Amino acid sequence: MHFTKMHGIGNDYVYVDCIRQPPPRDPCALARAVSDRHCGIGSDGLILICPSQVADARMRMFNVDGSESEMCGNGIRCVAKFVHDHGIARKPRLTIETGRGVLSLDLTVENDRVTQVRVDMGTPILQAADIPTTLPGNPVADAKLPYWDAGRELLDLLAPAGGQPAVTCVSTGNPHGVLFCRDVTKVPLEKVGPMLEHAPVFPRRANIHFAQVHSRGEVTMRTWERGSGITMACGTGACSVCVAGVLTGRTDRELLAHLPGGDLRLHWSESDDHVYMTGPATEVFSGEWPE
């Protein structure tokens, strides 16, 4: 099986062209194997590039633990780069079918290679039942997390970072919980991430993000991804932070987000209510996996 390793600001996946070769028999098991950073290729998961009846290609995304997710913002930019650079569809605007629906992507091409991609992420989902979360509110903005077994421990862990267990919930095709704090570097993400991902208020688990606001147009964020753990970046998460900042009055609709792997530019448009994300896509290497 031929594969290509790609990343969007450090959020790395193994990509498999299932248009020109057969799809893997067990993508869940394959995701677990290739993602292993010691015994595999090493990645945040597996993304299959498949034929589509309604778009230029279809993206299927699998986490490190083998679970399938609906969308990946950094991943879809890399899919667009692969589709263009490898000759599947060489157009300045592409459409990619995802678990969120069909998304449109505008490409910046230099020397016949894609360097930047602007993704129309669509309208954010703010109805609690559709995210889904059992927290009150439509939208769920700065909602206090009810205490469950880990509630007091969570409060104590967040105290040094100036954080409170209050969360703003957004879905950009997959569920996100955003918590604002004074210093993201002091968040013990390896401890609070899994606690919040599996909190009872998230029936399908959630991606968890901590954001530090520098100004109305700039934030720094860190991410715990559902099914993958700490990652260098999360595109759908950055979009959710942008929406959460507006909902809670902390930021404007145009936002520069600093993530451990690099920067993303976000815009929650008032004209069409869509969120737009712009960032790079990078191909690292290709190889053969003896599936």
> Any idea of the CATH class of the largest domain?
Alpha Beta
> Within the CATH hierarchy, at the fold level, what is the topology of the largest domain?
Diaminopimelate Epimerase, Chain A, domain 1
Named at the architecture level, the CATH assignment of the largest domain is: Roll
Report the CATH superfamily of the largest domain: Diaminopimelate Epimerase, Chain A, domain 1
Number of domains: 2
Strand content: 35-45%
Count all strands and give the number.
Answer: 18
Short recap of the structure:
18% of the residues lie in helices and 39% in strands. It is α+β, with helices and mostly antiparallel strands. The chain folds into two domains: 127 residues, Roll (Diaminopimelate Epimerase, Chain A, domain 1); 146 residues, Diaminopimelate Epimerase, Chain A, domain 1, CATH 3.10.310.10.
Keywords:
globular; Diaminopimelate Epimerase, Chain A, domain 1; 5 helices; 291 residues; alpha+beta; 18-stranded mixed sheet; 2 domains
